[in-house]
Structure formats: C-alpha cells, structure tokens
Amino acid sequence: xxxxxxxxxxxxxxxxxxxxxxxxxxxxxxxxxxxxxxxxxxxxxxxxxxxxxxxxxxxxxxxxxxxxxxxxxxxxxxxxxxxxxxxxxxxxxxxxxxxxxxxxxxxxxxxxxxxxxxxxxxxxxxxxxxxxxxxxxxxxxxxxxxxxxxxxxxxxxxxxxxxxxxxxxxxxxxxxxxxxxxxxxxxxxxxxxxxxxxxxxxxxxxxxxxxxxxxxxxxxxxxxxxxxxxxxxxxxxxxxxxxxxxxxxxxxxxxxxxxxxxxxxxxxxxxxxxxxxxxxxxxxxxxxxxxxxxxxxxxxxxxxxxxxxxxxxxxxxxxxxxxxxxxxxxxxxxxxxxxxxxxxxxxxxxxxxxxxxxxxxxxxxxxxxxxxxxxxxxxxxxxxxxxxxxxxxxx
Length: 395
Known about the structure:
Blueprint (H helix, E strand, L loop, with lengths): L29 H8 L17 E7 L4 H5 L6 H5 L4 H4 L4 E2 L6 H10 L3 H4 L5 E3 L6 E3 L9 H4 L5 H7 L3 E6 L7 H6 L4 E4 L3 H13 L4 E7 L1 H9 L4 H18 L6 E6 L5 E2 L7 E3 L4 H4 L2 E7 L2 E6 L4 H12 L3 E5 H6 L9 H4 L5 E5 L4 E3 L5 H4 L3 E2 L5 H4 E2 L2 E4 L1
Parallel strand pairs: 1-7, 1-8, 5-6, 5-7, 10-15
Antiparallel strand pairs: 2-17, 3-4, 8-18, 9-16, 11-12, 12-14, 13-14
Helix pairs in contact: 10-12, 11-12
C-alpha cells in the first residue's frame, strides 16, 4: 500500500529481487546440458539433475509457466501428472531468465546463453547504433541478424557434430530473423496443426542414433494475452496442448527423453488505474525519457543524455514500492541479465530497468495500444512469470 504523501516511499530493495538460476537451472542451460550428454564438443552439463539420452526432444509451450500447470490439474491432467518428474525428478522448475519474455527466452534456449551474451534483452530494446527501439520479436526495424546475435546456436553445433537435428514448428516461423538467430540448425519442418507437429517430431527423433528435436506451440500464450489465464479460451488451449503433449510422449522411440518446458509464465492484470499505470499520460514518468522500451512488467527506460540520474530518482519515487527499479549498472551487477554482459549488449539495456513486483503494469496507451490492451502479461522476476517446467518422459 502506498505511503501517505508526506512520508518517503518504502522502496523495494534490489537484493530482494529473485535472480534467475543462470549456469545451473535456467532455460539457457537446457540445450547445453542435452548436447553435452550427446558428446557434442564444447558443452558441459549445466543442469546436473538431468540424465543423458541419445535422443532428446524439447517441446516448448509458449506462455505455460510452472504455476499455471500447478493451478490447473483438471484441464491439464497429463502435464500435472508429470510435475514430479520436473528437472530430473526433483520436482523443481527452471527459471526463464530476465526478462521473462518470448524473444529473450527463445534466444536463451537456442543459443544456450543468458541475455547479457546473446543480446536480446527484452521485447523491445534500443539499438545503440541507430538510437531506435528494436522490436526483437517482430524484428522491426530491420536489423542485420548476425550482427545483432552473432553466436552459433546449439542446434548448429550439434548438427555439425553429427547429431540428427530438427525444428518442427508453424511454417510461418521458418524464415523469421528470430528463428535464424536463435533456433536454426539442421532441418526445419513446418507443420500447421499441433497434431502434425507432434507426429513429425517423433519421426525426426527416431531418424538418428543421436537426435536433438525442438517443437513449439504458441496459442496458450496467445489466448492468455487476449483473454487472460482465467478465461475459458485459455483453459481450452491448455486442455488442447495437454493432449498434444500426451500424443508426443506416447510416440517416443527407444532411448529418448522428452522435455516439456515453456518460455515464461503469465499473470492477469486488472483493467483499472491502480493496476495499469499509463506512461503516456504520466508527466512525471515521461520527464527526461527519450525512449520507453521493454514491456509492461519489465521496462527499459532510455533517458535523454544527462538526465539518467534524475530519471532513476523519479522512477524510484513514483514506482519503487511496486517495482524493483535499478540503474543499468545495478541491474547488471545484480545478475538480472546473466553473469557477464557483452560490450555490444551494454547499451541495449535501459539506463533504468523497472521489474514489477506487485500485480501492476506500465502501459503506453498511445505508443503501444495493442500491448496495453492485453489481459495477461509477463516479463518480470516474480515466480508466476519466471518459473517454467522441465517435465520429463523417457522411453
């Protein structure tokens, strides 16, 4: 609850923000661990709880966090039954990484690197070379992909080492820059229906003595954004994807491990002024700000040169009871983006980084009308957004 106007706000200490388990239990650690178990050179098993398998399949369900599965045993009986198998049968989740958003997480999965190294540190981030906001999910404005994310993917390195490697996803994703920089390597097989993706993934898994197959489903996230996770539309998608997971699990060839995970969880935010703070209508928050990046629960704030300290002070005074508000260097030192930050990535991170603690969002009704109208959102460090499953089925 906000303090009376004559009292100083009680700011959230930065050391109370949960830091992702980079190096031992984050999404970035999954594929390197699987590749190490398949004897791909250059990788070590970062997640010690996992047992190697000759054939590995990763099924990533966009937007289906750990807390959502736990809360819906009736809609997702198969996934719920697998919760004890998570993270090598420890019954524990992984962490997504910060921010907990699709572009960042998919890049972490595919490259095996934290955001501070792969360089996709949010939904939108400033390009230091142009000064423009770069939408890293939609890749607008166009930016040379290899310059933005120069590292090889785990799929590329596994393919070069003789592992049968494939991605099975919607055809529209085959040529996207995000796929190229995060998930390319081996074969891409586009299939429209979820059932076809599960069947083809199982076939590709059986096609090699050592196989690494990735498949993906997006509409749990899509319905959550539009209607919220407390909607019939979202629950219907959860029921559907539960059936897809079972379908794939029942087709595993011998010597296989199936890992079902997600890129982030999701939280519903009420449509009221207390829960949705409109940056475009708030003169205090706008003062000294050149660009507003990121997304509602994980904001990158780029200050007018010389105004960085003032912007940090104001954002802390206005939002510091509800958000962890850090300077760029404080967020880096806290490890939010990983243990190291590449030089090319440093300027992509906001002068101020604001991560939501409470059930609140910073919208931008004029400049981000679509995003501001979303019912379900994500991006921050809270467990409902950050924790993702690593459910396991072996044959």
